[in-house]
Amino acid sequence: MLHKLQTEDKLEYNFFPNSTGFVQFRIKAANDAHIALSPAAAEVDPMYEVYIGGWGNSKSIIRKNRTKPEVAEEPTPGILNPNEFRGFWIRWQNRTISVGRENEIPPFLSWTDYEDVNIEYIGVCTGWGASGSWLIEPPRGGPVPSPGQPRPTRSASACWVPASGGQVPPSSFAGGEDNGEPVYVVRAQFGGGLIPGKLVPSHGQCYVPWGGTENPSPEYEVLGSPARAATSPPNALTAGQSEDGEPLYIGRVVHDGALTVGKVQPSHGVCYIPYGGQELSFPDYEILVQ
């Protein structure tokens, strides 16, 4: 259920628990939508702040510990609007904070810290002459697997952890999101191949694209080592192989408002995703690299 919130022109944060590493929200304000990423439900050190549409709706910044200078800054004239909702996402993972617009993969603001800060709460507020209406997606995630889970398998720097039934092992790689819920990179045996796909934890199973359809599988392996997404294929992570032995890679695309993980088959020149019961192909995509 969405968090619906009105914030006054007070610069006083309203905090919500969120330790998933991702938040998606929509905001209607003239300027200065402020978001705090904090270890506690309060303004503490260390913590981060993201200002969207600050300085008269002319630029956006990332700030650490409420001090200047800003650690990241980008001109964003007119990014907010007092008469319509504008959507954004913020991701914090591997000490990197990224800020992007709704339905856009590349962030418009990003910064990597030397310090590993354990973010447990987000806070929102408005100020500097602006009030705001917020629609904040609730945090979602999957259960932590029980002790005695099978040992992970490794390939180069990748770590594939066996799991089932919607389980999300610790340190799993979230390659996308769907309605605010993290979507994890997985692979599963299907059709005689080892096929990369996606895991939506609340569904209790993974999905792989194969044979023109979206195929569910209750058992899978989750990518569990740090990795990053890029728009070019150097050092692409080999995640599986087709039934003919062709290497398959992990790709992702934005479709129908969701950032969805799938497979890249080089001989086909596209990324396939499992979505809405179908296997969909996209010629433009991001590919996971080591």
TrEMBL record:
<dbReference type="InterPro" id="IPR006616">
    <property type="entry name" value="DM9_repeat"/>
</dbReference>
<dbReference type="InterPro" id="IPR022041">
    <property type="entry name" value="Methyltransf_FA"/>
</dbReference>
<feature type="domain" description="Farnesoic acid O-methyl transferase">
    <location>
        <begin position="10"/>
        <end position="138"/>
    </location>
</feature>
<feature type="compositionally biased region" description="Polar residues">
    <location>
        <begin position="232"/>
        <end position="241"/>
    </location>
</feature>
<dbReference type="Pfam" id="PF11901">
    <property type="entry name" value="DM9"/>
</dbReference>
<feature type="region of interest" description="Disordered">
    <location>
        <begin position="223"/>
        <end position="244"/>
    </location>
</feature>
<dbReference type="Pfam" id="PF12248">
    <property type="entry name" value="Methyltransf_FA"/>
</dbReference>
<protein>
    <recommendedName>
        <fullName>Farnesoic acid O-methyl transferase domain-containing protein</fullName>
    </recommendedName>
</protein>
